[in-house]
Sequence to fold (1030 residues):
Amino acid sequence: MHLYVSENPRSLYLVTSSQEEKSGRPRRALVFRAAEGSTSQAIVEFLHKDDIDFSNTVRLTSRVIKGCLGLISVAQEMFLAVITSATEVGNTRPSASSPETVARIYEVSFYSLTSSTWDDLAAASDALPSPSYTDSVDVMMMQRNEAINQNTSAAAFEHPCAPLTKILSSGTFYYALEPYWDISSRLSQRLSRDHKTRKDINTFDERFVWNEYIIRSLLDFRDRLDQEERVDLDRCQFIVLIMQGYVGLFTLALPAPPTNGSPTIATITLISRLGWKRAGTRFNTRGVDDDGNCANFVETETLFSTDQQCFSYVQVRGSIPLFWEQQGFQTFGQRIQITRPQASQPAFERHFAQLTEEYTAVHAVNLLSTKENEANLTAAYARHMQIAHGVFGSDVDITHFDFHNAVRTGGHDSIVRDLRRLESISDNIDRLGFTMCDSSTDEIITEQKGVFRTNCLDCLDRTNFVQDILSRTTLEQYLTLVRHEWTRAGSLWSYHRELWAENGDALSRIYAGTGALNTSFTRSGKRTLAGILSDATKSVSRAYINNFQDKDKQVAIDMFLGNLSDQRQVTIFDPIHDSVRAVLEQRLSEYSITKHCTIFAGTWNLNGRPPSSESLLPWLFPRSNVPEPDIFAIGFQEIVPLNAQQILQTDPEKRRIWEAKILDTLARRSDKKEEYVILRSEQLVGTALILLVKAQLTSVIRNVEATTRKTGLRGMSGNKGAVGIRLDYHDTSFCFLTAHLAAGHSNIQERNADYWTIVNDLRFLKGKTIKSHDNVIWLADTNYRVDLDNETARTLALSDNLDALLAADQLKQVMDAKAAFIEFEEGPILFRPTYKYDVGTDNYDSSEKMRIPAWTDRILYKGNQLDLTTYARAELRSSDHRPVFAVFRAEIRIIDYTKRAALSRMLLESVTSTAPGEKLDEKLASLTFHLDNMDLPPPSSDETAWWDSPDHPNGVFPTFDSSIAPARQSGNPFDSPTDSPLSASPSSSDEELYARALQLQTPMAPTLSGRKPPPPPPRNSKPSTQNGDV
Fold:
């Protein structure tokens, strides 16, 4: 196929070539252009080539296009991604009834729908024919293109998609050459589908399709075509789904029975499918996320096929499914931090729930060593697995095998013997089995009953070594059953070793930037000096790449997958679905609820002192008549002395001591109702932030991330700076920040600069910033002072003349001038200045410096869901600062996605159902949703409530019988018609619920909590699933 462009309006044409048409593909074109004024919405048409006027088009590239990967918005422009170079790897299963051929991608190009700036029209200057296949070329168009080429080459811009091009052109992406087979799914999964579903390109394993984010709009466009058009689009093979990983195969001759003397032709194939849901590079992506997706997750399938049977054996690998990471500069000693040791179990169990649902049973093989950092991960892994046994029973189990110790003891040769002798391994090889199918009928004869899940630290070298052994052992079992003499075929095992060595190299290059270690042994079965030297070189290269190059690569990966917080997915113009989406957002309250939670935020400058015998209860539980907080956000400054040694290498032990002190205080409190766990903690030299939550909330708090930003010595030193922790509590996001800003009475501008450095440069994963969150709370030693002389400030403070003091408060002045903390609020300050005291006393500083009393310790907040209930200080005297605390009542949004899907289907049905004579365009044009048009009941007062009336005593409403409801005329096209089959359902379905709700008065939320609440709506039955969500 070829790619053409025309201007005014700018359009790209992806058209079938004459050669493709001779082979049976339809004469069709896929036409793309940007919607007017939009960089994230495209207009796409699937047309016959004969219906397009190509006289004003030119060939955009001389390269033959292999397929389209999708649409992506980058740098305020929209780009079409196409494959411009790929080679055929081979037929992975020649014995199948139709070919299952794989191609490897070597080059991907991005062409803009919104601008000609990035066009590569140099190749178009060689008088390429237009799709009309005539010899004439539009001379004027060619001259214009040459002028554009000269201008753009002079500018020498870097293409906005250059990082994406580099990743996608790395030779690690593959796609199926035939549209009717699914490369993303293992053999047993494909054969278990019915014939129609098996050939549908929209049926795939979403875990392994890497361009799902950018191709989704085109797949939705395809689904909206009628059946005949959809078949034509599939036959054109414009849409390509790609996976990342490795595909390799060899064809070989094996001895056959002495019937005719001709050998059996067999094919051995290895396919590794890398998951994208927690994709990234070695030091940037570790462990698990809250949805149970783990880093470097790979499904590897060994296929062995002859004209009689086909054998399939599947294994998986993946990072240890706990919350752990490696921050800072990493060399050859791995500094591992388990970030949420007490809150990992829900995500751990989600991960294994996904695996058992997909593969039935899972036996984990942990290859970490029993020394130093790896031992801590192994111990945590074992603890979580022991708890998970209560959930999964015998479906999930684990074997711990210290790979490095085994190599030290007996060399690499001993690994094979030791693994096969382990009872837990050999028993599970027999129990889990393999898949075998009949080559002529594709009938499954026996199916694999579970998988081995192997891991080391990176899930690369050691893991690949062991998976090679498990694959060979299982293949030997199969060959023993079907043709025993093939187990002694040297060429087969030579190819098997080569495939696994190449597989190890490919996966290692993706995750770590170099080939795998130990592959010399995998290839030859021997450990050689050349192999040892090669491994040493690779280790040095990895250290450099992972520390200095991988961050940019991680950003490019996140951009391609749509993970960046400020990204907008490209949609294809569709007035019906666009209107439904808009109205869904307006009707959020109909498919979501809110609940309240209590948040405690506290900040304390510790002056480098360890915990004393002084109780923390007056600070952490200042009021006895309020609910226990759901979340504690505790910020410390100067948790360690700010000396050169600590700045160069911070000691985390002081933070751990304070964590233990806080947990002990929480455990010893009177009338204890809930258990608390540390959700996350993070430290930057002397600044530390600790988040604790009720243990029962760990399953609904997700996407917890921590980060830091230095501001000392112009960003080079961590003696000053900020620590941030963000999270999602159900569907509401929070960002907590503790900071220590520049010191010095007159250094106001430096403090302002520190604030802006933090706001602009503090980044969480996937591009999230402080501004990305619904609610933000600062709890910090801001170091802003009071602009009064010492004697006046002390007199005013001791006489509690706080208004006069606040008039001279630097932070208030800065906020009024909008020089910092713009849009943030602070509660009324009704307490004396918190700085600076003589330690252990209530006396302000009596040292030689005689510091002026000031409110350096502050809590500021921003967010519509936050309601401040308390802002005060606690009288703890073990530091020269007094701790400050604030208590917030926060509103948490909980979206019911099942209800949302039901409402979406109702709206879609209402819009698409047109009455005789009714024009759909007019109906779409009238789509509105106005709350102010709805009749509201009289407002409630202290004496009466709108829901408590003579007609409805105590808020009791009679049951509404939809079968006798009078017909209702409505100008709202989103109201479900009374004759709709959904509305006519006699059960309490979502449709009936919405129909009933429209008959009632619109509720208003009461403001007083002492009154009886309004009655709850009837419970919904399971919603209809006849239409998909939009």
In short: Residues 121-155, 927-934, 960-991, 1001-1030 have pLDDT under 50 and may be disordered.
